[in-house]
Write a structure and sequence with these properties.
two-stranded parallel sheet; mainly alpha; two-stranded antiparallel ribbon; 56% helix
Length: 339
């Protein structure tokens, strides 16, 4: 990581040709043999997600594209072809350099975000290896780091750390082609939004119990799914009905927030509960896990971290929406009383 960061600084900021290698000598005899603006040789396997368009653990891997050569890049980066060197370098091309098919700015963001996360979670630089391992394994690594920060700190999350988690989530999101299956990031964001439509949690001033409150709807649905889906010959609609019914009963007993904050009629409550249950059964269990309990177990905690992150991000807006709705209802009741 240190070598990659230094190479990026030398190339991107100073316009130098850089050859990054793990050998104790430069494996070229002449400078003109370095035909690329930034050449990487034998990089550590832990950097594979940093230097690929999509993380390696995904089923739909794309082939890594080679860095653009100086000839291919033409006028970019101050290394123009000799035949074109007399022409001015267009400013619009200044950020077009790519490494392995990834824009240089994107690699900058990934590397800097990881360093911010590592410094916030640990005082040891050596723990960067743990962060890289998590990024290579988990598409929702940014949410995992966010949850880890909350577990070990009682104060609010710094904006720079929150932004770093956002960058990691956006950077490693996987959108599969030719499929309707949602990415894990999109799935976590959808479940978080739908759970807040069912239950608005109230967070104590000491911040304790946040995860339990933020994830309670999701955890309830997953527990019921595991319980009823083992019954033979249950259709999708039956699974959805079981989970929706369990959610409604659970919400009637919850006293750590507001249940069904935006609906009042029973039919609307049932509709919201079934909508959430459908996301769990269809989008998660069937399309993502193919009704496999081992895959469900593999995704369960990673998704919980993602839901915790997006609930934290959306909660203030949802409370503002609820307060606005409450104020509007009060105005209507006042108008009705004066008539």
């Amino acid at each position: 990581m240190r070598g990659l960061l230094t190479a990026l600084v030398l190339q991107d900021l100073l316009g130098m040709r850089v050859y990054l290698t793990d050998k104790p000598y430069l494996p070229v005899a002449y400078l003109d043999q370095v035909t690329e603006a930034l050449a990487l040789e034998s990089e550590h396997p832990a950097l594979r997600s940093i230097l690929t368009i999509e993380p390696q653990y995904l089923s739909n891997k794309r082939e890594n594209s080679k860095p653009l050569s100086l000839q291919e890049r033409g006028l970019e980066r101050g290394f123009p072809d000799s035949a074109k060197s007399k022409q001015p370098i267009p400013a619009t091309l200044s950020n077009q350099l790519k490494v392995r098919g990834i824009p240089i700015d994107e690699i900058w963001h990934r590397v800097c975000a990881l360093w911010v996360v590592n410094e916030s979670l640990s005082q040891k630089e050596s723990t960067i290896a743990q962060r890289l391992t998590e990024v290579n394994r988990n598409e929702l690594a940014g949410a995992r780091f966010f949850a880890d920060y909350h577990r070990h700190n009682s104060h609010n999350v710094p904006d720079v750390f929150r932004q770093a988690c956002h960058i990691l989530l956006e950077s490693f999101e996987t959108v599969e082609g030719n499929t309707k299956r949602m990415s894990l990031k999109n799935l976590a964001e959808t479940i978080a939004s739908q759970s807040l439509d069912l239950f608005l949690p109230i967070t104590p001033k000491d911040g304790k119990g946040k995860a339990n409150r933020y994830e309670t709807i999701y955890r309830t649905a997953i527990a019921e799914l595991k319980k009823v889906s083992r019954q033979p010959d249950l259709e999708t609609e039956e699974l959805i009905g079981h989970i929706a019914g369990t959610l409604i009963k659970r919400l009637e007993r919850l006293d750590t927030g507001i249940s069904f904050p935006f609906v009042f009629k029973d039919e609307d409550k049932n509709k919201r509960a079934r909508q959430f249950a459908q996301t769990i059964v269809v989008d998660l269990f069937e399309q993502r896990c193919h009704r496999s309990f081992s895959r469900l177990s593999r995704y369960e905690n990673d998704l919980a971290n993602g839901i915790f992150f997006y609930v934290s991000e959306q909660l203030s807006a949802k409370w503002a929406q609820w307060n606005q709705q409450k104020q509007q209802q009060k105005v209507k009741s006042d108008v009705g009383a004066t008539r």
